[in-house]
User: Which sequence fits this backbone?
């Protein structure tokens, strides 16, 4: 399995290197869909230039990266392209190894449930076989590395790639079962972009499952493990934040990074829903709706945890998707991360209802984004509503994609336990509805 | 040769509107009139008013090739042409300038009438004295003064005190004549023909202020006519330090501010401090700042940059740049245009947003600082600022303000946008609510209502199994 992975990696690196040398690199780096005020490379360079001038990068409103990024690129600025290519490769390899391990876990669990007779007798075609699961990790790496979104993100040198890498390592550490590493990587991810905080729940559920600790609120071992994991996470977070303080000897980065993410002062257009909403918001309600939109990201965690407590990795996938759709400054790099997981649920294909139209919507919107941007900003023949409309459509497409996969997942679970060929009391074929 | 221009001296002060010497667009100016008025308070509480009217004319009067007189008075022109005068100085003065109490006189002239000419020759009789007599008679007629009393009894030929003031090709002092009539009285009769020498008379320009009844109430009155040849000046004097600024780039996403600073001093380099204040919604990227002089990068010796904070303070950029002699320095910095909240746009958002002028402060080398207020153009004014070699002059210059367009949201859409975006969020909420709170059930058969029975009838006709 290593050889095909190496081939895929080589192909990805070649594509990226070719694009770096071409004239498209400048065009892609300027695209608002790829570079947001939070992770644009231009702003990293600006922050480092401000530091050279003796001005704190956080004294202005340009630089919103964390001090660890300053540390990292202060030394590696010359090799930026190489850094981003290596980051992408590392992400893909981490996802590959994580999904390989996850497949083993799935297969073991499946075998256990079959032996315990939990499955209905006629669901043989729904059971995943090692044959079909063999190529899934490679497909995941392929989906991530050769996804045009990822390639554009890498060519634009958006620090979203670094965030994706940290999240991938977090997933790998969680699936391997190492609570400490998982907590550290989750702390790094939260430190960089705040929203991965919601991934705490699926990680905890997975680790509890791995340790065979039952998820009951009255169970003492459950609370013990939870406190252990939470304290690991919080301590790593505190250590990282204190390290950041010592870089510039000030706490200025906290309002500049986290205040910026939460209060959304910069209304630069992007693929998300926040910018136009707050550009057109009545000033009186601005604070209220900022709170509503931010709560919206964190709010699905508990209900999803309750529903999907037996399937924490799917929970993680849905949570990642919700973060990518509803975060304050989304980019296509965030979309690419959760899309990399789609091959893992390829066995759900038969239950997806709208996959064709949704993929068409997503592809067409991806092409229309730069067109309508050009018409608004350069040609002057369209206005902001056109771009906003594509934003809405793209987000609806993503939301319906995720809910379609969620529906398919739940339906398959129902069929596994109740049998594939359902009959009514009178023997006729039955339909399944969600009630 | 190139020295055939002529001057007429009078003084007048002008504002920057079109003056009497203004040429129509496209026409080359052969003649120009400049007026200057200097009002100076004297230490004793008196006020000195000095009017100067100067006409510069590129014409070869000696050759007699001129027939059309525009700004230059015809009477004097024909006199100069006929008698071959190169320089003529006539002054009629009433009163005595009290130098001790009033300071240096603006116009140096003795009491009475003074006339002196240079390079006088006579076409007809080849006699300078004859020409002199004729000149004084003609001038007597023009100015209604008894200059005809000038004859050999009051004329001298000085050898050292009086040298030609204009261009001269070797001076033969035998061609110089000087005469003074101390008894000559100046009155309204002399002022009127003097005013008539101006192209608009006393009907336009500063000459309107020359009212005889006020002028002759003064303690001192002097009126003079000076004609002399000067160098042909082909171009306008260029200021030493000037700058211009413009916005580069296209589209509503990015742009760049370009400032061009010109140092036109031929051999002195000097530093200049540039202050730029840019509003916060044009996000400057200081790592894109480039300063190029004569094709090479010019690093500023001092930079102070204070980045902007959204809705709180603007960008501040101050730089000390060394400008080499005779060079153009181009300073460019890139910016990104922000999208503002709809309430932050002015009532006419597509007019654009103004960026204030940038300020250039410099100590310009002073010899050439005088070029801005040219000795040639305003001799009275520059006499107030005696300049010495080596000292510098503080100059503060402002560049053009810029007008920059920002991308605008649709101002008619706030309710629609709120509804549509909340709809998208609600779609997600609704889908997830359904999937989280509902479970799968086998559907119970139901007879269905009227619509279903109707649909089944249609299906029976089609041959399709019923619902």
Assistant:
């Amino acid at each position: 399995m290593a050889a095909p992975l190496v081939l895929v990696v080589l192909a990805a690196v070649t594509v990226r290197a070719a694009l770096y040398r071409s004239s498209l690199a400048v065009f892609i780096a300027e695209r608002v869909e790829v570079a947001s005020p939070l992770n644009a490379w231009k702003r990293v360079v600006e922050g480092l230039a401000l530091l050279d001038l003796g001005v704190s990068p956080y004294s202005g409103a340009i630089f919103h990266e964390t001090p660890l990024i300053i540390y990292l690129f202060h030394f590696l600025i010359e090799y930026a392209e190489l850094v981003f290519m290596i980051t992408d490769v590392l992400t893909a390899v981490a996802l590959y190894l994580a999904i390989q391990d996850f497949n083993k876990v799935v297969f073991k669990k499946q075998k256990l449930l079959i032996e315990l007779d939990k499955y209905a007798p006629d669901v043989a075609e729904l059971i995943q076989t090692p044959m079909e699961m063999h190529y899934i990790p490679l497909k995941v790496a392929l989906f991530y590395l050769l996804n045009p979104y990822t390639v554009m993100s890498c060519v634009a040198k958006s620090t979203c790639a670094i965030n994706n890498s940290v999240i991938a390592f977090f997933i790998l550490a969680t699936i391997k079962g190492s609570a400490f590493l998982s907590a550290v990587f989750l702390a790094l991810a939260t430190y960089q972009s705040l929203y991965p905080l919601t991934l705490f729940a699926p990680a905890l559920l997975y680790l509890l499952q791995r340790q065979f600790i039952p998820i009951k609120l009255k169970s003492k071992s459950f609370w013990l493990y939870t406190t252990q994991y939470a304290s690991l996470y919080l301590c790593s977070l505190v250590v990282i934040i204190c390290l950041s303080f010592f870089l510039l000897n000030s706490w200025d980065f906290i309002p500049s990074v986290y205040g910026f993410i939460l209060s959304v002062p910069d209304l630069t257009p992007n693929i998300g829903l926040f910018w136009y909403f707050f550009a057109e918001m009545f000033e009186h309600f601005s604070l209220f709706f900022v709170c509503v939109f931010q709560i919206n990201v964190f709010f699905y965690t508990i209900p999803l945890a309750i529903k999907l407590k037996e399937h924490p990795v799917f929970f993680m996938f849905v949570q990642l998707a919700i973060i990518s759709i509803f975060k304050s400054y989304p980019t296509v790099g965030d979309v690419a991360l959760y899309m990399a997981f789609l091959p893992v649920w390829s066995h759900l294909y038969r239950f997806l209802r709208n996959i064709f139209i949704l993929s068409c919507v997503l592809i067409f919107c991806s092409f229309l984004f730069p067109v309508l941007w050009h018409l608004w900003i350069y040609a002057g023949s369209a206005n902001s509503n056109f771009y906003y409309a594509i934003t809405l459509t793209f987000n609806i497409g993503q939301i319906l994609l995720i809910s379609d996969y969620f529906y398919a997942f739940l339906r398959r679970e129902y069929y596994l336990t109740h049998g594939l060929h359902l009959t009514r009391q009178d023997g006729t074929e039955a339909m399944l509805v969600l009630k | 040769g190139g020295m055939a221009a002529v001057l007429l001296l009078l003084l007048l002060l002008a504002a920057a509107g079109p003056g009497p010497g203004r040429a129509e667009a496209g026409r080359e100016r052969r003649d120009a009139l400049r007026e200057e008025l200097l009002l100076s308070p004297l230490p004793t509480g008196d006020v000195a008013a000095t009017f100067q009217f100067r006409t510069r004319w590129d014409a070869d009067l000696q050759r007699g090739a001129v027939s059309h007189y525009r700004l230059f008075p015809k009477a004097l022109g024909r006199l100069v042409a006929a008698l071959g005068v190169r320089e003529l100085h006539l002054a009629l003065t009433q009163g005595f300038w009290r130098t001790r109490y009033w300071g240096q006189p603006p116009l140096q002239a003795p009491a009475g009438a003074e006339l002196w000419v240079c390079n006088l020759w006579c076409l007809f009789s080849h006699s300078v004295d004859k020409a002199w007599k004729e000149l004084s008679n003609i001038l007597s007629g023009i100015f209604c003064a008894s200059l005809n009393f000038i004859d050999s009894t009051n004329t001298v030929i000085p050898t050292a005190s009086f040298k030609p003031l204009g261009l001269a090709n070797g001076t033969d002092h035998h061609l110089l004549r000087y005469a003074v009539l101390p008894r000559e009285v100046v009155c309204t009769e002399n002022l009127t023909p003097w005013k008539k020498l101006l192209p608009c008379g006393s009907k336009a320009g500063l000459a309107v202020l020359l009212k005889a009844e006020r002028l002759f109430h003064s303690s001192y009155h002097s009126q003079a006519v000076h004609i002399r040849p000067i160098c042909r000046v082909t171009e306008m004097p260029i200021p030493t330090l000037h700058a211009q600024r413009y916005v580069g780039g296209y589209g509503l996403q990015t742009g760049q501010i370009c400032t061009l600073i010109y140092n036109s001093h031929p051999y002195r380099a000097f530093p200049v401090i540039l202050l730029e204040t840019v509003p916060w919604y044009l996000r400057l990227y200081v790592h894109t700042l480039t300063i190029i002089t004569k094709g090479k990068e010019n690093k500023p010796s001092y930079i102070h940059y204070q980045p902007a904070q959204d809705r709180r303070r603007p960008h501040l950029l101050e730089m000390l740049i060394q400008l080499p002699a005779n060079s153009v320095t181009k300073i460019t910095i890139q910016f990104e245009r922000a999208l503002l909240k709809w309430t932050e746009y002015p009532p006419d958002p597509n007019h654009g947003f103004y960026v204030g002028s940038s300020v250039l402060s410099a100590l310009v080398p002073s010899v050439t600082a005088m070029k801005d207020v040219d000795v040639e153009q305003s001799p009275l004014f520059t006499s107030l600022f005696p300049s010495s070699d080596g000292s510098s002059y503080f100059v503060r210059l402002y560049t053009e303000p810029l007008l920059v367009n920002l991308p605008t949201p649709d101002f008619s859409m706030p309710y629609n946008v709120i509804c549509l975006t909340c709809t998208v969020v609600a779609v997600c909420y609704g889908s997830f609510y359904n999937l989280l709170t509902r479970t799968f059930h086998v559907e119970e058969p139901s007879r269905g209502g009227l619509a279903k029975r109707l649909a089944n009838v249609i299906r029976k006709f089609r041959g399709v199994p019923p619902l």
Notes: The longest helix of chain B spans residues 414-437.
